[in-house]
Amino acid sequence: MPITDESSVVLDAVTKTFGSVTAVDGLSLRINRGEVVALLGPNGAGKTSTVDMILGLSTPTTGNVSVYGMAPRKAVSLGAVSAVMQTGGLLKDYTVAETVQLTASLFTPSRPVSEVLERAGITDIADRRVGKCSGGEQQRLRFALALLPDPDLLILDEPTTGMDVEGRREFWTAIREDAKRGRTVIFATHYLEEADAYADRIVFVRRGSIVADGTAAEIKSLASGRTLRATVSDADQPTIAALPGVDSIDARGDSLIIHGKDVDDAARYLLNNTDAHDLEITSHNLEDAFVALTADQATPQVQNPTEHSRVGATA
Ligand SMILES: Nc1ncnc2c1ncn2[C@@H]1O[C@H](COP(=O)(O)OP(=O)(O)OP(=O)(O)O)[C@@H](O)[C@H]1O
Fold it and tell me: CA-CA distance, 62 to 199, in Å (whole number)?
């Protein structure tokens, strides 16, 4: 269907409660066309609840969700949105091609079977029975099925759970290749490396709210800081602790571990004034950011803006 709205998905102050549990807590988010967005967060953060509302499988308790300016269910019924779910929906005795053929007969219009098999990278296993396919192959089959209506928006909820490394890599290669055509992709994951490798934008969700929104590099920079390790026997720790940029010092035998936003001054001090050697400076990675963002105490450097268009991480 021709889509004119620049935004694929808009969530406006969306809350979803289940009894006394608040799964989604006043979440606002705008996803533009062509973005590949990871909803990243720990277990129970509210990712699936959010995805379900975008798919029209459930409705917000308060707030509003629109997909291409429509109610989600309408967008799904028009073929503008497809989903690749984790489990279910496949009959083990059919072959891969028969499964796609059968599903294609439900859609009018539908992309050709051979085309979606090709795009999902499963042409070579078209004659294999579904029951004999690996987890990764079955997920690529689900991906092929999701492509039949040629959706503008593809939604994947933890699509690679239980898959081995190779299966995951092949699955994501197929998704990424397809996304190059301009399809909007939203996927929920708690695999940091998946979000890092495959998303243009990471929306970090914690306890039903967005705590960070930006590129992987921007999210990583939220765990901003460096660690300086050195072997040193004569360092004056109070002097180092007072240097600009230094947050904390850990002494372990002859090793000194200095943490801080910027440890260049500390390195300079050590080299000029002590017998320090074997200096090593490391920066934090996405995993550090994940730990910082999911820590129980709210991290002071992370804001929680109420409106999330492509704002970048808010450090
Ligand atoms: N149908 C439901 N009834 C009751 N509570 C629910 C229901 N669905 C979700 N919840 C609760 O809402 C919270 C958010 O769950 P949700 O599945 O959205 O999180 P998630 O980020 O997808 O987690 P995971 O990574 O473990 O799948 C959790 O506390 C969960 O137990």
Answer: 29
